[in-house]
Design a protein that fits this description.
Elements lengths: L2 H17 L11 E9 L3 E13 L4 E8 L11 E11 L2 E4 L2 E6 L2 E7 L5 E8 L4
Antiparallel strand pairs: 1-2, 1-8, 2-3, 3-4, 4-5, 5-6, 6-7, 7-8
């Protein structure tokens, strides 16, 4: 390897190592999202999805999900879960039975529950990672 080639390799590789990997198309999901589920029977239920991290190679995201527990909606005790979601493409994250689709600056959520009912929701990002 010549000195010139070695310099070129260092110029190309060292910045990538120093600054981390290139941005992932899934990075748009990172952060805290808040909104409401609209249900057929219950009306509106507050919900939060926090995407803690994404793994572009595995196409997964670590999340914390909460639902309910606010006086405004009359919901019962809040439900909170940690989990892992799977990206089916650059704009869709599936967590259990819930599908989140990135649409501009909102997440559109849908869920089909075990009794055949559909829930829909819209969440807006409240902070950036």
């Amino acid at each position: 390897m010549t000195r010139r080639t070695l310099c070129l390799v260092l110029v190309l590789i060292v910045p990538a190592l120093a600054f981390g990997a290139a941005p992932s198309p899934y990075d748009a999901f990172l952060g805290k999202w808040e909104g409401q589920w609209i249900t057929r029977n219950s009306g509106m239920v507050d919900t939060t999805l926090t995407v803690i991290s994404v793994d572009p190679e595995k196409k997964t995201a670590r999340i914390i999900y909460t639902r309910g527990g606010t006086v405004a909606t009359g919901a019962r005790d809040p439900v909170s879960r940690n989990g892992v979601g799977t990206f089916t493409d650059e704009t869709t994250l599936v967590v259990g039975s819930v599908t989140y689709r990135l649409d501009g600056d909102v997440l559109k959520a849908t869920q089909v529950n075990s009794m055949g009912g559909n829930w829909t929701g819209v969440l807006k990002k409240v902070n950036t990672p």
